[in-house]
Write a structure and sequence with these properties.
Number of strands: 5
Radius of gyration: 16 Å
Number of helices: 8
Helix content: 40-55%
Distance between the termini: 30 Å
Order of helices and strands: EHEHEHEHEHHHH
Structural class: alpha/beta
Strand order of the largest sheet: 2-1-3-4-5
Shape: globular
Length: 175
């Protein structure tokens, strides 16, 4: 499915990814991420590319930020799980993992801010009773993960989402 190496937090996450697709995986050992592992990620990023797929929780986001700062050019994939019980890559279905990898985005640090908080308010993604649900749907369409409004805005700009993609996601979040 992908020639890129998938970076995950633990062994159970790696098993879930391997059940979903034939991919090579690097395990960070959670927040035990070492400089040696970062160097390995840098090496494979130069050779074939990296997709970061961590859990949608605080440690997962922290690991994602550490890798993104240390290894520029990684793509980011986010899991959207249907069940509300257990969260994380290890609990995602193979279909959810494949969809997340297919929707992975490159973080672009030099892109000018294309979107503002006013865009989120105008699109109903902030400031209204159903903003969270609309952001969740739009985030799923865009592959940005589940976030609050401030983080959603940051990812819109960091992942160089086009105005057209944004408008399509807004339309899809109204359904």
């Amino acid at each position: 499915m992908t020639q890129e190496i998938i970076v995950v937090e633990g062994k159970d996450d790696a098993g879930a990814v391997k059940r979903a697709c034939p991919a090579e995986v690097i395990i960070t050992s959670g927040l035990g991420l070492t400089e040696k592992t970062l160097e390995r990620i840098r090496t494979v990023q130069r050779r074939c590319g990296v997709i970061i797929l961590t859990d949608p929780d605080y440690p997962g986001e922290k690991i994602r930020r550490i890798i993104d700062e240390a290894v520029p050019g990684c793509r980011h994939a986010y899991i959207y799980q249907q069940n509300k019980g257990k969260i994380g890559v290890e609990y995602a279905s193979p279909e959810e993992i494949r969809a997340a990898l297919a929707a992975a985005h490159l973080s672009v640090k030099t892109a000018p801010d294309r979107f503002t908080m006013e865009d989120l308010y105008a699109g109903g993604l902030a400031g209204s009773d159903n903003s969270g649900q609309r952001r969740r749907l739009a985030g799923k369409i865009l592959g940005l993960g589940e976030t609050n409004a401030k983080q959603f805005l940051k990812r819109l700009n960091a992942y160089n989402i086009s105005r057209e993609e944004f408008e399509q996601a807004l339309a899809g979040s109204e359904e």
